[in-house]
């Protein structure tokens, strides 16, 4: 890391005196390291390099939980990168408030981001005190159930059309030696799966009351009790999926060793990379086939405030490159996510992405939990659900009580 | 000029002036970084600092939340189990190995290298190695099963009840070599005449060890204890490499709680409160004991 920075710095001193007026190197940090993600980020780099600048890739392995602390400490520690990924929402809130991030309002007004970016909640999440601080690049929704058609064929049951059918098919899968539901050991996976179950089973209003209004009474109420019942099913079905990373869990589904996985649409990039086709090799059920609603969280790029003028200019170029229609299409097709603008043509999109686009067009959307809850509350939730999914003796009632406490103290 | 005037009675402050000047940077480092950083941390643990430190005092709220968090309680429990067993086992195994090495065996150098070698590996490498060894599908379990015991089960890292012992095994493998070396150095420091005297008196060997040699090695034992104890309290990387705290939160440790809440949860106040608790734990154990040990001797 150090060495590469040093090399980059040395290279910069050599290049700068001869460099063209507005060409600069920008180090961009992100946590897109799985196969599908790396292919997608290469598209962004290509588009940025085409503007005459240079994308210096600063991928940090180990998913957001590992990468974000590194990014934050680099920004607060006075060694800012040119641009960095965050999930837009509240992860970078305090960095913006303490003036460490760059205001992009100029670029945004010049390029009419307000009119282009759909749904508008994406840009709202980038806006703090009326100023825009980030460039959203994609919409990622969590609410998907990915099913392996091959696994169900082996077990001799039909591919389910919704969550209930999936639960009913679980014993048959188990008999065939297939883990019904793949859940990786990383804490955010079990916490995320619970949020998905909540939207699917309790519906949009309850979701908004619990995470939006932080209503602890609803969180302790009968609707959420039903969700915990479903989470209990999920827990039983996930027994035996001894993997850590989300893409390893997706791989279990791809290879037919697991029946399905509740995971965001970023899993689609993995299916694509494995050469699988939506509909024939795998099936996707948005909203678990129960409630077709998707959340509109996603990734955005934030730009730390830099002293170097050329780099600052390059930041503007990068920001507009990210929103550019061509980049949007190229990137999102590889990533399996939805574009942030409604006016681009995604003819090449596969069945699953088309389903997502349809739901998006209908406006059946909710905000992501990253946008609604602080990192602190999210972490507490992760602790709870990783314990719940790994501890068969923990009753759903106890877990719900603790969940309500977290919501009561959430900010 | 005043220096000449006072030449008659040497100023205590000016004695060894060079060495005192030379140690100023270290003194400053110790005071500013260690002591200053510690005080700063304790101070800010009473605030509701989130991602960045800020001065809004909330009294003992962070501590109340800490001690009602199930994850923290599990962490403390794990640390206690890990601490007690790792202290006992690394001392016992380390001493036994050292005593065996001290029997004037052949190839002592070779054995010493073999036993000490794991210590050259970082906890991360150790953790990854043992993660593979203890993995039911690739490691010990699958080897034993392929030998014919098809129902043999040994998957400590995937069983919440015993996962901490899986970590303990790796820690012992890594750390006992060092304990052995320290003990061996202590044994070599014992005068040969004492052994001869014991032999003349007809005292059996084990009795000589227990009643004569070990009490004589008190200083070595104390140094070793301090080294092991400090290793126990800060155990973090081994857990991250082996289990990432899993399954669920069954193998969480306090140091990991501190890191996760400070950086992942962006809640500095909570992390500071947890690290202050760690400091207090260490202080409660180390301070009175160090006082008895080192303070006592000076006076005596």
TrEMBL record, chain A:
Pfam families: SBP_bac_1 (PF01547). It is found in: Periplasm. It comes from the Bacteria. Gene3D superfamilies: Periplasmic binding protein-like II. Residues 1-23 form the signal peptide. Coiled coil: none annotated. Keywords: Periplasm, Signal, Sugar transport, Transport. Part of a binding-protein-dependent transport system for a sugar. Belongs to the bacterial solute-binding protein 1 family. This is Probable sugar-binding periplasmic protein. It comes from Rhizobium herbae. The lineage of its organism: Bacteria, Pseudomonadati, Pseudomonadota, Alphaproteobacteria, Hyphomicrobiales.
Automatic annotation (TrEMBL), chain B:
PANTHER family: ABC TRANSPORTER PERMEASE PROTEIN. InterPro entries: ABC_transporter_permease (IPR051393), MetI-like (IPR000515), MetI-like_sf (IPR035906). Its main location: membrane. It is found in: Cell membrane. Pfam families: BPD_transp_1. This is Glucose/mannose transport system permease protein. PROSITE patterns: ABC_TM1. Belongs to the binding-protein-dependent transport system permease family. CDD domains: TM_PBP2. Keywords: Cell membrane, Membrane, Transmembrane, Transmembrane helix, Transport. Residues 76-291 form the ABC transmembrane type-1 domain. It is a multi-pass membrane protein. The chain crosses the membrane at residues 21-46, 79-101, 113-133, 162-187, 208-233, 272-292.
